[in-house]
Amino acid sequence: MTASDHKKMLAQLKVKPAIYNKFIKHNAPKKRSCGVSTKKCRRCGTCRGHISKYGLNICRRCFREVAIKMGFKKFS
User: Over 1-30, what HEC string results?
Assistant: First the structure.
């Protein structure tokens, strides 16, 4: 679990409201305005190899899988 993505822990604590509220109070990360963790892939959620050009907002690995469906052509 990464510091900026605490959603896995929240899913487990939903059934225990008192512990959930305490966790939110002390451990929820601040909203980031810049840095690596602000840009995530829409498909897989990774922060690495992000392509934001043309409003794609996906990582390079996901782009290779869906590029043909989006209309991009491979020239070489």
Answer: CCCCCCHHHHHHHCCCHHHHHHHHHHHCCC
